[in-house]
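[job 0412] stage=fold_complex status=start
inputs:
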Amino acid sequence: LKYASILSIGSEILDGRVQDSNAQYLCELLKENSISVKNIISCDDNLEEIIEAIEFAKKSIDYLIVSGGLGPTTDDLTREAIAKYCKVELELDNESLEKIKEIFRKRNRPFIECNQLQAMFPKGSQVIENSNGTAPGFHISSDTKLQIFCLPGVPSELKPMFESYVLPIIVKENTNQSKIQKIAFKIFGLPESLINEKVTALQLPSNIKISYRAKFPEIHLKLESSDIPLNDIAESIQLAIGTQNIFSHDLKETLESCAFKLLQKNNISISGTESCTGGMISTLLTSLPGISKNFIGCLIAYSNKIKNLNLGVTEETLYTHGAVSAETAKEMAINARHYFNSDIAYSVTGVAGPDGGTSEKPVGLFYIGFSDKDCAYSIKFFLPSDRERIRRYASYMTLDVIRRYLLGVVQHTDAKMN
Amino acid sequence: LKYASILSIGSEILDGRVQDSNAQYLCELLKENSISVKNIISCDDNLEEIIEAIEFAKKSIDYLIVSGGLGPTTDDLTREAIAKYCKVELELDNESLEKIKEIFRKRNRPFIECNQLQAMFPKGSQVIENSNGTAPGFHISSDTKLQIFCLPGVPSELKPMFESYVLPIIVKENTNQSKIQKIAFKIFGLPESLINEKVTALQLPSNIKISYRAKFPEIHLKLESSDIPLNDIAESIQLAIGTQNIFSHDLKETLESCAFKLLQKNNISISGTESCTGGMISTLLTSLPGISKNFIGCLIAYSNKIKNLNLGVTEETLYTHGAVSAETAKEMAINARHYFNSDIAYSVTGVAGPDGGTSEKPVGLFYIGFSDKDCAYSIKFFLPSDRERIRRYASYMTLDVIRRYLLGVVQHTDAKMN
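[job 0412] stage=fold_complex status=done
writing structure:
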């Protein structure tokens, strides 16, 4: 068995400005590849403190993953600290320097001298390329056989560098480890406690590790086993939870990409109109490359005037039933479909709060409308929560309404059809 | 000045199952009360490893905050480790035992023997009451004057215990401390390296702590000093960086809320039309409660057909200059303003990639359009990056274009006006 420690460098962690999300990400991936993490340590951008932390962390570990402190400013000291710890000099890597200069050229920005620092590495290290920023990482072996990997602290830079460079090295050095079997379920539409109850009732063998993770508004369920085959067990879980509530077995797949794949497969065009979600559904859909073949457009009809004048929801509907109503949601979806001339259309209207709620229409109430060429309907939902969670929930629920329609499965049973 | 370290105990942190959110919370509150955190350390529920971690952490600190490992099971070893470290025995606290038994009675659950463990404390410690769970915490001073506070790992139990017991003690012991002065700058529109160069050129006194944080696409700069007044220095920094590039001194304020405040103050209504950002700007704006008084709506004109038929960008403009062009961006903004009948309007059109780029219009090229009743213009930007960052950058840049317009300050100097 091999061991690792994680060292996160930066005053922004110690003064509480940022959550060290890298550490959890690294622990998760290392664990998946049978590497145990001994310690996570955070320290300041300070030469002696970094070296002391390495001295503490290095005991009986094989890998040290360092994040942060690789920027171009005077408070970035990781390069220097590692060089000092390994008793080598820093030296300039011309190839990296050229790449950094190229980034500045492309961005039409002058290259400033201090950026040269980012092309300095402890002698004997291997440069780890950074495709998403100017700070490359590096990999060096100390005399005690400890391998040190230094990566930038920005998660969007660290993650691809870890996965493309560090992980393959670690995995290669650990190929003889027995592989653990895993099956994951990404679930939408059921509360965690209900899923837990259904899974517990199955009385699975105790050497199957079951773990839950609530990533609002999704629940992720994971089974792990080193000896029992998981296929039959996965099937019984699927039956217990309901296939339609499981949108993927791939933890990296999102609800929006599920919906997109179904749109692609059926060659269906989509449009929408959003009120309380303010464009979040359309932002999620357009995050996917290639969606322009299916997604036509969306009207953020934030005010009643726009719902009426631009989208054509009748004054009568708005006046009689209100902007947050089953009738308005349905009319919004029908009219969006015509306005954008798409095969199907969705709509959302609700009370996101914190103000604007009434006893009849409280904060957290929202309606999702849906329309295709044959029919139109709307569904009522209620989540008493804060503005951000209500908007997020309404957006993901709309994606799930689309997904269920495209799969031809029943809509959410806890919602009333109108 | 007093120092603290944080020790988070538990295998669920090291195997990536949970994010150690307690550490950030504790750091933030300690910092606010002028206590600097030296280290955050996570280790497993293992007697020797806990003691080794304390030995490492205790150097030159006054307070050690320990979280986790106070549960009733055999793998909860924090009590034992602290007793061993302080060279004292564990002893039963009858009052705590009665309280734990009372909780079980109230929950209608049988009291299981192992729960008695939770009423055992290192001799000489002060019990810290837990109103939200069964595990009390404790407070003990080691012979080296180090004060150790042990709290449960569950955030909803740790937080009230920290605030009602630990914090008052720390605050009381530090009332004579001179308060650390802080000034923060939230900067948008300049790269980190250029800011660093400008700040370095000011040759500030070395006892002012300068820290940078890149939170794409913003840069946060912080000055701290315990002796030198920061007002004059802040002014010179402002001059060096350019006041218009600093959108706030409050680290919690966002670019969208800055823009919103200016819209409110000037009683101006806004609308927009988005292509490559797909609704992200409108999602950011509508995240703010009360924005419905100023934000009218937005048309996500993702396809050329919608830009032409629904928004009224002429076929000639789209055909001659292309959908991603200064001319289209400008016409989009003008037409959005008319379509939504708002005081001002913004537009964005660009190539977010990863496909669809050409040598003339590469991935990362985007135009922001702007229009009020008197004039309209568009600005060209280029960020060769991935889809997510391009969309994010374009969205924040649009918010900044709005902010600068409302402030009446110059637009981005590195962008070409059309």
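[job 0412] summary: Chain B touches chain A through 91 residues (CB under 8 Å).
[job 0412] exit 0
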